[in-house]
Amino acid sequence: MDRRRFISTVAAGIAGPFAGVACVSHQGQAKPVRAYGPLRPVRDLRDGEVRLHLPDGFRYRSFSVAGSKFGDGSTVPGRHDGMAAFAGPKGSTILIRNHEVNGPVGAFGDKKRAYDPMAGGGTSTLRVTRHGEVIESAPSLSGTMMNCSGGPMAWRAWVTCEETVNGPDVGDDFSGGDNSKLTRKHGYLFEVPVGRAASARPIRAAGRFAHESVAFDPSSGALYLTEDNFGFPSGFYRYLPPKHPVLAGRLLDGGRLQMLAVKGAKRKDLSVGQKRGVTYETTWVDIDDPDPDFRGRPSNDEAVQAVGKQGREAGAAIFSRLEGAVQHQGTVYFVSTQGGATAPGDEAPDGFGDGRGQVWGYETWSGRLKLVYESPRASALDLPDNVTVSRRGTLVLCEDGDGANYLRGLSKAGEIFDFCRLEPVDGDPGAEFAGSTFGPGGHTLYVNVQARQGMSLAIWGPWERGPF
Question: Which PANTHER family match (predicted)?
Fold first, then answer.
């Protein structure tokens, strides 16, 4: 199919207002949903260890563990995070995976190809079977930092996001790394094509801020961007490239960055608890200086807010920690990790925002924003992070909670259910799920465990038994 037909076909397939996931009360459903049945411990087919609790009939295999070797002999870095799956040859799957490594620890892979030879983050590309057996693996982008999430693109590419503004021109961040050792500015989007190494050229016009995720709208060519500012307000952005990326065959720099605002309500605070079924009419405000040139080495806290402050001064809406985003049938679903009201009995988490999580939906063609789900308590949904969508329109939410961490489903009927629980990792209470993505045909759900020794996993089983 040629590119123009691709765009018109996708546009014609957009469904009605907020098709897919339904909005539910922030009181939650009356009783818990067990869409696939109770969870039980299941042994990893790679080594027999119990890492996941899954419904009956589901199996999994872990692969590409941090510290193991790529096919070229270099070492797999840790901090596995956002990921996307693409169809590969002979029924295989190509995975492009982020590594959220911070600090001037040195680039992995070939340092000559690195964006910044001192930075330790980036992406790896793997070709695997639908049962998690690695066929090929290699670094695909290195020398970036804090590659948290990103998004798959329709022209067979992954756009990876740096969740930082570190660089030699700003003060050190909370991790204590010495930014003066860095050679380049960070905080950008980078494109990673399927099948070849990335160019390591940042998309500067898409902003320098704490990028988290990106969702592509094939109808307009816009990229919708989330921002995860842990201690400060966050914004929902869109980047309008100078040419439709499908027609260009790649993502071009030099476009326009905008930030979402609620019509008639300047600086509307959407981080707090919301009414059931609330819908807002929205507009967009321009960011005049998306790639600020810092002078005098300002503090990291000041620098990380520089782009967002421009939008809020123009009236942009306030969110709490925007993380995962995914586009489905004309709606971009995105997650506010600490959005909502604090439930009785729950402690407010650290950072900006007192809730346990919200899921929002933005209709790209009508400009309406709607609350899809707000967590009523930590036991229902606890600090959602990355998100993906199944073929049936059910969302898969990766938790980053304080206790047990789950993969939760949010069905089209607005029901939250448990699908998978992470077995506690010895000595690593911060281990969490990240980067969930369904492979071609929906046979396999690939997901990462971000831990001190991170890894990827392939999960398969009787999906037809439930809403995935």
Answer: MEMBRANE PROTEIN, SLR8030 PROTEIN
Q: What CA–CA distance (Å, rounded) separates 193 from 215?
A: 16
The predicted model scores a pTM of: 0.95
Side-chain-facing half-sphere of 294: CA atoms under 13 Å = 25
Calpha distance 360→271 (Å, rounded): 11
AA letter at 8:
S
CA–CA separation, 95 vs 80, rounded Å? 12
Q: Measured between alpha carbons, how far is 396 from 438 in angstroms, rounded to an integer? A: 10
Residue 441: phi and psi, rounded to 5, are 80, -10
Q: How far apart are CA 387 and CA 377, in angstroms?
A: 19
* Domain residue ranges of the chain, discontinuous segments joined by +: 3-465
- Tens of pLDDT, residues 233-273: 999 999 999 999 999 999 999 999 999 999 999 999 999 99
Query: Tokens standing for 9?
Result: 């076909």
pLDDT higher than threshold 60 for residue 191: yes
User: How confident is residue 42, by pLDDT bands cut at 50, 70 and 90?
Assistant: very high
The beta strands (E) that lie in 351-415 are given as 358-363, 368-374, 384-389, 395-399, 406-410
* Tens digit of each residue's pLDDT (9 = 90 or more) over 375-389: 999 999 999 999 999
Decide if 192 contacts 155 (C-beta within 8 A). no
User: Partners of 281 in the beta sheet?
Assistant: 368
Beta strands in 103-166 (DSSP E): 121-128, 134-144, 147-153, 157-162
3-state helix, strand, coil in the chain (%, to 5): 10, 40, 55
d(CA 358, CA 166): 28
CATH for 3-465 is 2.120.10.30
Q: How many C-beta atoms surround the C-beta of residue 19 within 10 A?
A: 16
User: Which residues fall within 8 angstroms of residue 135, CB to CB, at 6 or more apart?
Assistant: 92, 127, 128, 129
Indicate whether 10 pLDDT > 70: no
Cβ neighbours of residue 58 under 8 Å, at least 6 residues apart?
36, 42, 459, 460, 461, 462
Q: How many helices (H) and strands (E) does the chain have?
A: 4, 26
- 378 Cα distance to chain centroid: 21
DSSP 13-51: T--STT-SSPP--TT--SS-B-SS---EEEE-TTTS-EE
pLDDT tens profile 266-321: 999 999 999 988 999 999 999 999 999 899 999 999 999 999 999 999 999 999 99
Q: Which of 163, 224, 150, 226 is nearest to 192 (CA)?
A: 150
Dihedrals phi, psi of 84, to nearest 5 degrees: -140, 155
The answer to whether 98 and 123 have CB atoms below 8 angstroms apart is yes
